[in-house]
């Protein structure tokens, strides 16, 4: 996080695509194959949400929470940082290899996203059933709890019972039902 006094920047790193033995890459940068459905991806999304919430809380604590002080907090992506961000660092070096990884995740060079907007997107509480049944899942969705993102009507329409009834069932039966409708 970088506070320039006028703007707050939250730098987002990258998700390495494969483990590597390249000596130029540090141990911290090594990773298993990125799997958007795996628990490590879910943890990364949770950490991103926590970082964004922390940035917004920091801004509000510093400037107050009134309409005149709407957060000027922005996300930037590793390798794709805009000049407004990189100009703050006298020895900045671009990394094309990292830019390429983030562009594969549909980020664009120089792109800045408002932290508030991205956090709202990642903390969305309901999705149409069609979005939860297709892959890849939307960012921020916990793949182990897909049924919780359904509206009450969608839940009943897809699982033929309401959420309270479903939650009363034994775990094995809930899992079996989720598998049968594609929510697993």
Automatic annotation (TrEMBL):
GO cellular component, one term: cytoplasm
GO terms (BP aspect): actin filament severing; actin polymerization or depolymerization; barbed-end actin filament capping
Pfam families per UniProt: VHP
InterPro entries registered for this protein in UniProt: ADF-H/Gelsolin-like_dom_sf, Villin/Gelsolin, Villin_headpiece, Villin_headpiece_dom_sf
Database matches in SUPFAM superfamilies: Actin depolymerizing proteins, VHP, Villin headpiece domain
HP domain mapped to chain residues: 121-184
Protein name: Supervillin
């Amino acid at each position: 996080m970088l506070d320039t006094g006028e703007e707050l920047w939250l730098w987002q790193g990258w998700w390495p695509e494969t483990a590597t033995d390249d000596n130029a890459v540090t141990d911290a940068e090594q990773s298993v194959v990125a799997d958007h459905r795996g628990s490590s991806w879910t943890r990364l999304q949770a950490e991103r949400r926590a970082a964004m919430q922390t940035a917004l809380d920091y801004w509000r604590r510093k400037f107050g929470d009134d309409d005149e002080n709407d957060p000027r907090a922005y996300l930037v992506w590793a390798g794709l940082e805009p000049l407004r961000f990189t100009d703050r660092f006298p020895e900045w070096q671009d990394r094309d290899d990292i830019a390429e990884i983030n562009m594969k995740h549909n980020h664009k060079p120089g792109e800045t996203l408002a932290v508030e907007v991205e956090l709202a997107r990642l903390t969305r509480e309901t999705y149409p059933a069609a979005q939860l049944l297709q892959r890849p899942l939307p960012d921020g969705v916990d793949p182990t709890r897909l049924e919780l993102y359904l509206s009450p009507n969608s839940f009943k329409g897809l699982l033929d019972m309401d959420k309270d009834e479903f939650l009363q069932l034994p775990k094995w039966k809930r899992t079996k039902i989720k598998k049968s409708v594609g929510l697993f």
